[in-house]
Amino acid sequence: MTEQPSSVANQNNPPTLLDGIMTTRALRRLSTTPIPEDVLWEILAAGQQGPSGGNIQPWQFLVVRDEATRRGLGEIYSRTYARYEKAMLAVAPPQRPENEASWQRTLAASRHLAQHFGESPAIIAIAMADISMELTDEYGPLDVGTAFASAYPAVQNLILAARHHGVGTALTTVYRIEHDAVRDCLSIPKTHQVIALLPLGYPLGKFGVAKRRPVETVTHWDSWGNKRAR
Ligand SMILES: Cc1cc2nc3c(=O)[nH]c(=O)nc-3n(C[C@H](O)[C@H](O)[C@H](O)COP(=O)(O)O)c2cc1C
Predict the structure, then answer these.
(1) Burial letters for 25-51: b for 16+ Cβ neighbours within 10 Å, e otherwise?
(2) Please, are residues 29 and 112 in contact by the beta-carbon 8 Å criterion?
(3) Which of 113, 115, 116, 171 is the best mutation target for the ligand 1 pocket, counting ligand atoms within 8 Å of the beta carbon and taking the most?
(4) Single pTM value for the model
(5) 172 alpha carbon to ligand 1 midpoint, in Å?
(6) What is the bridge-based pairing of β-strands 140-142 and 59-64?
(7) Nearest CA owner, ligand 1 atom 21
(8) Which atom of ligand 1 is nearest to the CA of 109?
(9) Most buried one in 36, 110, 191, 217, CB count within 10 A?
(10) What is the CATH number of the domain that holds 203?
(11) In this structure, is residue 224 part of a structural domain?
């Protein structure tokens, strides 16, 4: 890929916190331009600040820059994405005409990522110890939430800190179809699960506000069903 990343200039001009959140979207077309190690450390440090139940901090970050290892992950991702896409398209409802163009763009970008995953200059694997958060008292088991919920805030912090530095990514999980192969590729022991792979790179596309339902349509005030105009 020889195209110039659009956001290298952006690195010296980070967005405010809220602008960064509002303009972080999945970026799947990434430049091969290396990401400086100090930038990677800042991204990782932000991930490490993520909250977790009881502050257990169950994650480990594995930063993959080695070319052969990235290629190995890329091959797994490409295979698993192909299976995912076929199965997903078989059940996907027809798109409304007004959504068709953006659906096709997302599909094209997802295929692009699947073909070029291993060319991302750095891939962060987020691994998590296979633990149960379940507690029990004299009345029985206490459901205090799933264990994965204690790791995804750290993943989102990584993504937002990358945005701060003009680095794009998309949270990916389809590799889980071949989870053991990913663990083998990265020498991760069976005591840990890989909960996300973040292919990082300076984006060839642009950050921007992603399409979502209007917030007022998903917000209830004081009791379920009581909605208000914004
Ligand atoms: C748990 C989770 C798993 C995801 N897995 C993948 C994936 O395997 N591959 C991929 O291309 N995008 C993946 N995504 C990205 C979503 O498709 C993306 O966040 C969503 O479509 C919204 O994109 P937007 O912010 O650009 O609108 C995943 C996102 C989440 C939160």
Answers:
(1) bbbbbbbeeebeeebbeebbebbeebe
(2) yes
(3) 171
(4) 0.94
(5) 6
(6) unpaired
(7) 26
(8) 11
(9) 110
(10) 3.40.109.10
(11) no
> Could you identify the residue written with the tokens 């840990």?
192
Domain count, the chain: 1
- Give dist(CA 11, CA 165) in Å, integer: 5
Q: Whose CA is nearest to atom 27 of ligand 1?
A: 210
Residues near ligand 1 with C-beta < 6 Å?
A: 25-26, 28, 110, 113, 170-174, 210-211
Nearest ligand 1 atom to alpha carbon 110? 11
Is residue 227 one of the residues assigned to a domain?
no
Q: Tell me, yes or no, whether 79 lies in a domain.
A: yes
pLDDT in tens, the chain (230 residues): 444 555 444 545 899 999 999 999 999 999 999 999 999 999 999 999 999 999 999 999 999 999 999 999 999 999 999 999 999 999 999 899 998 999 999 999 999 999 999 999 999 999 999 888 889 999 999 988 888 899 999 999 999 999 999 999 999 999 999 999 999 999 999 999 999 999 999 999 999 999 999 999 999 999 999 999 99
Residue linked to tokens 């027809």: 94
DSSP secondary structure string, 86-132? HHHHHHPPPPPHHHHHHHHHHHHHHHHHHHHGGGSSEEEEEEEE---
